[in-house]
Task: structure prediction
Amino acid sequence: MESQDPFQSINRPTNCRVKQIWAIGGGKGGVGKSLISSSLAISLARQGNRVVAIDLDLGGANLHTTLGVDLPKYGLSDFFTSRTTRLDQCVTPTHVPHLMMISGAQDSVGVANVHNDMKGKLLQGLLELDADYLVLDLGAGTGLNTMDFFLFGDVGLVTMLPEPTSIENAYRFVKAAYYRRLRIASPLREVWHLIDAAMDGKNDVGIKNPSDLFREVNRHSPEAGMRLKEEIERFRPKLIVNQARTQTDVDIGFSVKTVCKKYFGVDMDYIGYLDYDSAVWQAVRRKRPLMLEFPNSRLVSSFDRITQYLVKRHGHHRNDLY
Amino acid sequence: MDFTGTSSLYDILEVAPDATPQDIRAAYLRAKNAYRADSVALYSLMSSEETHELLARIEYAYQILSSPERRREYDRNFGRIDETSHVDRNAAVRAIVNSDKVVSIDRVPPMDSSGTMDDLLVAPSTDFTAPPTPGTRGSAAVFESSEAPLPMFGQSAPPPPARAPSANSAPPADRGWIEISPFGQSPSSRPAPPTRPAAPPADAFAPPVQPSSTSPIAHSLPNAERPRTPSAAVNASDEIAIEIAHETDWTGKFLRKVRESRSVSIEELSEFTKISKTYLLAVEEENFAKLPATVYLRGFVTQYCKALKLPADKVLAAYLVRFHQARPEKK
Result:
């Protein structure tokens, strides 16, 4: 387990234009991460922001398809293999004004396992891009890189479908991000061994859930307990329920929020749900962005609403989340 | 997740301590839905034992918080009032000052000579200074001067045997009315309608207090006959009624005695009359320096008497004489 803070070497450039980074993850594949990323990016761009959507699904990049762009000439794989030296050479325009994208890694084998140095270089490069908003489309799974990309975002969105498999993976994702975030938080340095134990799950300290961890940390030192509480309270991922067919599906979002509060002590923000809509697969088959292909569908207005909410609520504070 | 180690009932339902009943109900339904046995939202995260325990706690919390009476009792014993009163005196004062029970500054001028914040706490025997009794931790209703702890609204002081017989005779409509009235007492201590004409002499003495009075206060405050047990009650209320009949001085001390004999706490009186506790206590203590000008005091005393069914005009006349003697410059 790599334990050093992946963000510690990253310096915010003085003339940084990037206002905010949104990261969209969800644990399971096929829950709509790419669709939501592209739709939110388009929606943001339409509101007059300069946006770059970045495909960080390194093993299975297809954000370009949901944005209706042919496979770009340069992508992240070129950046990782140093064929391009600067990240902005990978930026490809799209058909939407103000919206650009960086394609994911395509072909080079093993690129999904990016080394820490390269990751730092990438994240540093992201902050130097000429854009107001960055939208990160993450891959499935709970790999370390995915977690770090998620935590690098100022707003972290977790998307899930109202079905057990997806919920299971969404919890796994939140749990991994949660412990990873605590693990790299330097104020908690002195209790890292306890957090490691908690991540293990089958540890001999008897830490089975976050409440146990909090109790053990408190026993170690009440001061560390206070800091742990602060760190936990600053972790506020946002939740989106995708493909909702019934009111029960919509309500699952509220239940998940309640359960997360109880289990993790995390205040999840349930920012909205997306109706199940066959327009989505039609748009995907035509390789056209949903937002452009069906501009009058209910989904589009849902995306616009979510974007407006996030910008209004969080758009002006960097590091609102982390 | 529980950060404090002692989560309150409000924490369990994840509502604010000042949540409305509607909020509480909504939160309860949400929690029930989240933790129900087949809830998909629990999948893979919590074991069924954990869920079971949580559900039981949620049920318990809702049971208490959904009933206005039990919620008030809970607040009193574990709630905000208690927290502030024992931690920080100034915080307690702020709680009073900021409390919505305080009459707004538009209606009453600032108090005279209220130097420091501490000065606001007038009474030696308010609930904020009363020592917490074991069992009812810091109960807001312990008055030092009363011989025995009087049965308070929402508390279970009256012995159960006294309740049973007359509770049955109380019509359901009465019960509902009593429960929402600010001075509501348990139906048990309210005499059945047939006994009402045999009201104490105070009624004859003071016209507005006739049983037929249409004032809502008169209905909600049949306290002259408030018994601890039916027979003792008659005696006790008779005694105080006779005293009321013969009273001429109407001192603050006597007013307090009447109030306490009717088991009305200062908070309840304040809520009902919409007069701040500080002023009510000042009236009872005849702390004239703390009271506002005559025109306001007149209103306070009148409200006080109305709430307790005392002859307001007689009380006012006697009370204001002493007030003017103490503060001749204020007419």
